[in-house]
């Protein structure tokens, strides 16, 4: 009788965890897609018009936008891999997404993705300083950036510097998202340990990036 009494409670707890797991996986995919869109905004609403109008030299633009294109490519690849894994799971009847090996997707993407993040994040401080100095020097640049922020609805009233910080903010979110996913993934689920491995790999890379950034500053 005692076992029967507690069984519904256990089932409810398992159901809650399955629901949380689905929600976290959806959050990872949706926020990565949004991050990718913000990178495209950086390139299409800022870098391209500034280049076409001749507001800054090629070297100055490169010093501000760094390897944003590389980051956008890496993010697009990550989203595609995640969506493919979701599609395969759903088509096979796995509504709880237990066969979606998010950890493996991140581990496979890590070499290219983390290299791109390191290249960007370790130079981002210098890029922001360069932008600040150029804004002081160039009135046309100041006007373009101010008008864009106020009148371009795509920018959501965010300024260029805010968009330039997006990659730095994104890479620090990965360990948090993976940590939450690990907690609600059943011990028997495929690839659970890979989630922890991916989380730790990114954490170690963040520590390395911070050390490199201090050397640059």
From TrEMBL:
**UniProt entry tagged with the keyword Cytoplasm:** yes
User: What are the GO BP annotations of this UniProt entry?
Assistant: positive regulation of Rho protein signal transduction
**Which CDD domains does the annotation name?**
RhoGEF
Pfam families cross-referenced by the UniProt entry: RhoGEF
Which subcellular locations apply to this protein?
Cytoplasm
One MF term in the entry's GO annotations: guanyl-nucleotide exchange factor activity
Where does it sit, as one GO cellular component term? medial cortex
Q: Where is the DH domain?
A: 20-212
| Listed InterPro entries | DBL_dom_sf, DH_dom, Endocytic_GEF_Adapter
Q: What keywords are assigned to this protein?
A: Cytoplasm
Q: Does Repressor appear among the keywords?
A: no
- Full protein name: DH domain-containing protein
Q: Which organism is it from?
A: Ladona fulva (Scarce chaser dragonfly)
């Amino acid at each position: 009788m005692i076992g029967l009494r507690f069984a519904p409670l256990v089932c409810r707890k398992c159901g809650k965890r399955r629901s949380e797991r689905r929600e976290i996986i959806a959050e990872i995919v949706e926020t990565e897609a949004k991050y990718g869109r913000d990178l495209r905004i950086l390139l299409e609403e800022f870098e391209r018009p500034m280049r076409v109008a001749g507001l800054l030299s090629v070297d100055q633009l490169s010093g501000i936008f760094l390897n944003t294109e590389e980051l956008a490519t890496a993010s697009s690849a990550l989203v595609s891999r995640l969506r493919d894994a979701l599609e395969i799971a759903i088509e096979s009847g796995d509504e709880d997404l237990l066969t979606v090996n998010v950890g493996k997707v991140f581990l496979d993407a890590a070499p290219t993705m983390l290299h791109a993040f390191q290249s960007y994040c370790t130079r981002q401080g210098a890029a922001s300083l360069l932008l600040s100095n150029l804004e002081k020097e160039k009135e046309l640049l100041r006007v373009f950036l101010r008008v864009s922020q106020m009148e371009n609805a795509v920018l959501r009233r965010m300024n260029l510097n805010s968009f330039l910080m997006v990659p730095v903010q994104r890479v620090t979110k990965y360990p948090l998202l993976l940590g939450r996913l690990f907690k609600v993934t059943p011990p028997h689920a495929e690839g659970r340990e890979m989630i922890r491995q991916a989380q730790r790999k990114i954490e170690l890379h963040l520590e390395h990036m911070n050390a490199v950034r201090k050397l640059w500053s």
